[in-house]
Amino acid sequence: MTTTADAPTIASSAPSRISRLRVPELDELQTTAVRGFFAKQQRDEGLTSNWFRALSLNEQDLERLNGYLLPLLGADGRGGLSAREREVIATVVSGENRCAYCHTNHANKLGKVAGDWSFGQRVAIDHHQVAELTDRERALADIAVLVNNHPQSIRDGDIDRLRALGLDDHQILEGISIAAFIGATNRIGIALSVPPNVEYTGVPAADRRNTPDR
Q: Membrane spanning segments where (predicted)?
């Protein structure tokens, strides 16, 4: 019988372009920090992300952006929100904005953090239907949607809900900041028409082996 995991393996080649604007080759880059960032990404992930490549046209802007974005997503091992909570926020917001690159990327990362590829995909589709979300994650996802779509509608009660679930004010600000900043990155990706890396699509091999026949 055909498994449900067979279908998403169609992506096999890189897209013909990764931005509406010119994208520098890696050996053209002049900024040490930016070159180091891509070298590290290649070592750690075996790829260079299309979104960061698209932004490398303005190297100094990318360097400044990385100085804020990467720690905000927990790349520096900081405390505060968990890696899974950060990726829940990023995945939900990217889905709200229908950003192809960010939605696929963060759903993939959430699946890796959670140890369950399907979890990331289901949160990406509709977090309200994902029973495995903790109460904290659900509340963070809900306020992230408000930050992205209707920030004027946020009330004290929304903040009190987060506090009642054990989040302190530092963590609440962190969650709001992630939602707002991911919304900005979504808009950049959409405007430049950045496609997802093919590595972010399809079911990982381990998950294909563990998916039962239907």
A: none
